[in-house]
């Protein structure tokens, strides 16, 4: 955790959650021995589990409070969802790749994360049936924020999104009383896997 602190993560609750959660639970067996290096790793289906630094960075920007309803877009390995859960959030997480959803949803259940609900679906649409959310977190690099997702954010809520082509700048955006998007923080540059439209069903590969 000292490494994360040195890289500028100061939120003690986030540092504690990252320190507490064994990352190897979320990695394919083959990568277990590398689980504690600060690197992204493949999780199958050409996707990666984010670096602990990136997870800590996004989580700190979201400023999660207990019992808040948080929507995560891009479940992937479930690691980020688990960190949000440890912070006391009620987590709703959505994944467009059915194979990943089928792997991760039961894993989160087995690990006892009862405050996480995982969905297979297109994050472009968000989860209107579970809205509104206090916070929304994109874990894939988007070129813009879909209106349908922004509509699901509460007034005064926080939406954290890496925006851009190729490399992305991290933004934290809120919703004003008038329903407008307002940038409240502009952060560092990252390289995320792309935010893609539509779902990928597992029978297609
Ligand atoms: N939060 C994950 C990081 C996974 S990488 C973790 O902690 O491991 C980003 C994920 O976003 C990938 O699994 C990718 O399939 C997913 N994704 C990309 N576009 C999406 C969309 N439109 N809806 C839902 N998930 C999406």
- The count of β-strands is 9
Strand % is 25-35%
Radius of gyration: 16 Å
Order of helices and strands: HHEEHEHEHEEHEEE
Query: Which structural category do the helix and sheet elements fall into?
Result: alpha/beta
Q: Are there runs of 5+ residues with pLDDT below 50, and where?
A: none
Mean pLDDT across the residues is: 91
In the CATH hierarchy, the architecture is: 3-Layer(aba) Sandwich
Number of helical segments? 6
Assign the CATH class.
Alpha Beta
- Helicity range of the residues? 10-25%
Question: What does the largest sheet look like?
Answer: 7 strands, mixed
**Ligands bound, unique:** S-adenosyl-L-homocysteine
Instruction: Count structural domains.
Output: 1
Shape assignment: globular
CATH superfamily: Vaccinia Virus protein VP39
* Major beta sheet, strand line-up: 5-4-3-6-7-8-9
Distance between the termini: 39 Å
Summarize this structure briefly.
The chain is built from 6 helices and 9 strands. The chain is of the alpha/beta class and 205 residues long.
Overall description:
With 205 residues, the chain is of the alpha/beta class. It has one domain (2-190): Vaccinia Virus protein VP39 (Rossmann fold, 3-Layer(aba) Sandwich). It is 24% helix and 28% strand. It contains six helices and nine strands. The chain has helices spanning 2-6, 12-20, 52-62, 79-86, 98-110, 147-150, and strands spanning 41-44, 47-49, 69-73, 90-95, 116-120, 133-138, 153-163, 168-175, 181-190. The strands form two sheets. A seven-stranded mixed sheet has the order 5-4-3-6-7-8-9, with helices on one face. Strands 1-2 form a two-stranded antiparallel sheet. The longest helix is centred in the middle third of the chain and has 13 residues, at 98-110. The radius of gyration is 16 Å and the shape is globular. The relative contact order is 0.14. The model has no long low-confidence stretch (mean pLDDT 91). The structure holds S-adenosyl-L-homocysteine. Residues 47-50, 73-74, 76-77, 79-80, 94-97, 100, 122-124, 139-140, 193, 195-196 line the site of S-adenosyl-L-homocysteine.
């Amino acid at each position: 955790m000292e490494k994360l602190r040195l890289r500028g993560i100061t939120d003690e609750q986030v540092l504690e959650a990252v320190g507490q959660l064994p990352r190897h639970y979320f990695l394919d067996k083959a990568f277990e021995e590398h689980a504690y290096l600060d690197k992204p790793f493949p999780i199958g289906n050409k996707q990666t589990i984010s670096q602990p630094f990136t997870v800590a960075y996004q989580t700190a920007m979201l400023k999660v409070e207990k019992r808040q309803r948080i929507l995560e877009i891009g479940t992937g390995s479930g690691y980020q969802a688990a960190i949000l859960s440890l912070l006391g959030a009620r987590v709703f997480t959505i994944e467009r790749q059915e194979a990943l959803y089928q792997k991760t949803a039961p894993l989160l259940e087995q690990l006892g994360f009862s405050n996480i609900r995982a969905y297979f679906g297109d994050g472009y649409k968000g989860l209107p049936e579970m809205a509104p959310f206090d916070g929304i977190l994109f874990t894939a690099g988007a070129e813009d924020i879909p209106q349908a997702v922004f509509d699901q954010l509460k007034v005064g809520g926080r939406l954290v999104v890496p925006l851009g082509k190729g490399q992305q700048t991290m933004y934290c955006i809120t919703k004003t009383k008038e329903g407008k998007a307002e940038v409240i923080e502009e952060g560092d540059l990252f390289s995320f896997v792309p935010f893609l439209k539509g779902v990928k069903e597992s029978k297609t590969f």
